[in-house]
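yo, COX6C domain-containing protein is done. seq:
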Amino acid sequence: MSSKPKLRGLLHDKIKTNIAIALALTVTGGLLFKIFVGEARKKKYAEFYKTYDAENEFQEMKERGVFQSTR
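structure:
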């Protein structure tokens, strides 16, 4: 004789399982994004601003006539 299938509380159990899986995937995805995308961006920005000279950039744009308020 086979046992009856569990029907009482089945939806509740499935929802708990699905929430746990969704939470684990969300945390994993967030960490992977932070590691592979966020850290790479931080490094690129840091490298850019090590050699960036805002005053020199302003003078070049001023010479090209980009600004209307300066001569």
